Each structure stands twice: as C-alpha cells, then as structure tokens.
Amino acid sequence: MYCRNAVHGMLVLAGMGMAFGVQAQDATSGFYVGAGIGQNKLEESNADLGFSFDGDDTAFTLFGGYQFNPWLAAEVGFIDGGSPSDTVQGVNIEVDSTAIEVALVGKVQVNRALTLFARAGLLAWDIEATARAGGFSARVEDDGNDLSYGLGGVLAAGPALDIRLQWRSAELQDTDLSLIDVSAIWKF
Length: 188
Known about the structure:
10% of the residues lie in helices and 71% in strands.
C-alpha cells in the first residue's frame, strides 16, 4: 500500500510540474539542505511464534547533500521515526526509532520542473522498544546497520527551492521499515 501511495504521489508531482512549468535552477551542482515530514511504518512477523507487529507514526527528517552533476548526488540525513505502536496478544508494544542515513541519489530530469530519482544507501539505526501489559513494562534496545533504498520525485518550486516526495525502505534485521515523506529542499 505504501509503495502504491508513493507512485500515486509521484504521478501527482509529474502532473503539477507539467501544468505549472516551473523553471528549475540552472546550477547543476552544489550543496543543499532540507527538512521533511512523513509516515514511518514498521512491520515484523514471526509465524512460528504467532507474532505480528504492524505500527506507524509521524516521522521527521533533516538532511544535507551535494549535487555533483545533473544525475548524481550524495546525501546524509537524520530520521526521527516517531513511536510506531501495536497491540500484540494483549501487550502494547511501542518502538521509538532514529537513524542516520548516507546515500547516493541517481536522478533523471523529466522536464525543467520535474526530476525523478532512485536512492541507495546505508542506514545506521537505533530502536528502543517498550512492552506494557497490566502494570508491568519491559524495555529492549537494539541498533545496527542495514542497506536502504527508495524512489521519489522532485518538483522545482523556485530558483533555490524544491519540493520532494519520496518512499524509502530498509530491513532492520527482521523488521521492515517503510517511510514516505514530503520535504522542502534549499539549494545553495
């Protein structure tokens, strides 16, 4: 479902870019920074134990990058994945998550207003899961590094401002992460 929503959002961006004909900045390289908000979804299941977690929450992103040429950029960012929660067999489980991502972003310019991209990177993540049942609670912390990937679209909103819609995914050990966010990007 999240992938389908991301594709729908990119089609909306494409239509807006063609309808408004916003002109992109002429510079093909340089630094940029951005901030975004979106939806983080965590899913994990274990058929042997009859366990299934499916939670989502609002996520925030801060990032910066360097555009080497019209088709390649490198980016580093911070993701606050919020606190997705779910009730599993009568136990309320809440997962606080944060991550640092380093990624390469390959781009294809559709027209002067719209650019599509794919990204691949490394996600260094940290989670703190809290389980509550009755008056008892238990907390578990974990961290790790995993590959991340994603797709998105960028709409030029002005000479130094872009609007980006993207979908990102990663597998954090046995937990699937899916993040859809909208960001504002300022180019220098």
